[in-house]
Amino acid sequence: MKTFKNLESEVRSYVRSFPAIFQRAKGAKLYDEQDNEYIDFFAGAGALNYGHNNPLVSEALIKYIQNDGIIHGLDKATTAKKEFLETFHNIILEPRYMEYKIQFSGPTGTDAVETALKLARMVKGRSNIIAFTNAFHGLTMGSMAITGNAFYRDEAFINRTNVHFAPFDGYYGEADTAGYLRKLLEDTSSGLDLPAAMILETVQAEGGVNIASNQWLQDIEQICRDFDILLIIDDIQVGNGRTGPFFSFEEAGINPDIITLSKSIGGGLPLAIILMKNQYDQWKPGEHTGTFRGNNLAFVASTKLLSYWETDNLTQAVHYKEEILKEKLNEIIGKYDNLNASIRGKGLIYGLQIPLLGFCSEVSTEAFNQGLLIELAGSNDDVLKFLPPLTIEKELLIDGLKIIDESIETVLNERESIVEGNNHDSENN
Ligand SMILES: Cc1ncc(COP(=O)(O)O)c(C=O)c1O
To answer: How confident is the model at residue 419, as a pLDDT?
Structure first.
């Protein structure tokens, strides 16, 4: 660890939460240099829905490299890109009657978000964007301006105007937050400038696993239609099957104008795409560029992984494993009822909220000591975010959940022994 401490910037983060040097990984397991095994409930923050080193990907990449396939191509036509475009169209778009053009941005999620915002503003000729409380869309300037968390926003002393934050579903108890937004838009004296677009995550993953109901999503879509506003769904973390279907908004039956995808679309390799309804593809040639648009190795990986979507087996598997996850988490909140914990989730993204300062962080540390990776979410880091690969074996999922249960028990016991120790000390003083 000395190398990282001495040579890498203080900005490093996950190396602090998971202080091991990882050497190899397969499926839902990682191994460090001492060959200790870890169960992965983190899945590369959603980039590894199909597991580490999925055999479909490894085999295809080795073959591609051995045959001197094109690695870097800017946005030139390549065989790998052609196969990706055709496969994505045939397996994902066409069966869902989705008529969208596909754009490749720089390879990270935030590149896709920046592109979507730029396109929406250009198409509508308006500057304002509506984003939602607790949103996370990335950390470049435009994306950060529509990200809620002050921890990230505070670092950027830039102009963050042209964004209006509206309350997400459930932000204020039972209040109808979509109705509130409609009222603001209807009222010419509300001070809200008509936006080019609204952008939202159907499940706010980083924001604490906050789930928008289907009704709310439908209401928001209707508002967009009524006021001529574009609807952008950021499916970067919860698309690619995370909630069950390929897109997280399918169940709600809405038709976003623009969709951003990244993370798992590249099977662990960097790739980001923007889907836009045909009529909004108003770019001039070369108007939005970037050297690493469309990574050919990621195209090869992605094309293979899209075969998971030829049937609904993966969706069924996600729902089946969701039941196991939900049952165990309910058991945990029942067992430790003095913690006032609660759960929420959809598919294979679940949040276990424990409203005790620092408790989730201690559980995550203890779980790591017991061989499990799990991340925190929410503005107060009071949510444990369950995000295993969708392909995780049932037994491993159960083993991981046992570690969480034991870690909670250990943290509770440690906290109690500190309190007892303090009481003992004060009695003796
Ligand atoms: C919903 C969402 N949008 C955008 C991003 C930014 O992606 P990246 O970190 O690849 O820039 C993330 C990352 O966690 C995300 O969860």
So the answer is: 76
